[in-house]
Design brief:
single chain; two-stranded antiparallel sheet; 73% helix; 8 helices
Amino acid sequence: MIYFSLAIGLIMVVFLSFAICGLWTKYANLKTVKGFLFPGTIVHELSHAFLCLITGTTIKELNLFTSNNTGIKYDKPKVPFLFDFAIASAPIFGCAFFIFFISKILSNPINLNSTFPQEIHFTVKGFFDLIRHLLDTVWVTFNTFRDHLHLKNIRHIFFVLTIIIFTVSMAPHKQDIKHLVLGFGILSLIFFFLEKVDIRLLKYHGWDFFIKKLWGITTLSISVLATLLFFTLTIMGFIKGYRLTFGHKGSSK
């Protein structure tokens, strides 16, 4: 059931990153947000471009360093849904790779939990057990991250900035969300049925390593994004409350 957990986790990352990116670009200073997320934006757009090249999709425009219109435009893929999903999901894996890569460069400043969920039966109860395990893992990851984080350590500060930049930069374009949700759902079903017919890909070291690292980065991303969303909404609430309270008083004088 690791594949279902992973699919649900990745879908949560999709929606959380989309929500945060939308709120930041709408309510914060746009240039500041773009400047802060610039490294992640580069990885995001180049990931799209890389998959366009692999799938033979024509890139019509690629802007990386223009302040007004950073992004990529490409023709419709030759294989509609499959290539749409591949191109749309590329930034998630690209940003995840950079989190993993920079973590290695920094000698893994914070060790995170990458334990797979135990075998869960394919029932309604099993589904809720799956969700519970995912949320428990996210909570454990959050606490581990909080307990081991030392802001006086420059490596930890750089790691935190890396995680924030690259998790928020996973945010998809609005039109890509449907491809991502369906794609991750279908992929999890395919891998699930492969396991059922005794084709166990996890016995291969490379695949096992990839899935474990992706699982760890996914739970970390959910923890970070959920925390960022909480603080973003809290700050927005305080600002709106302040404006409503003191704004009316100021206008009535």
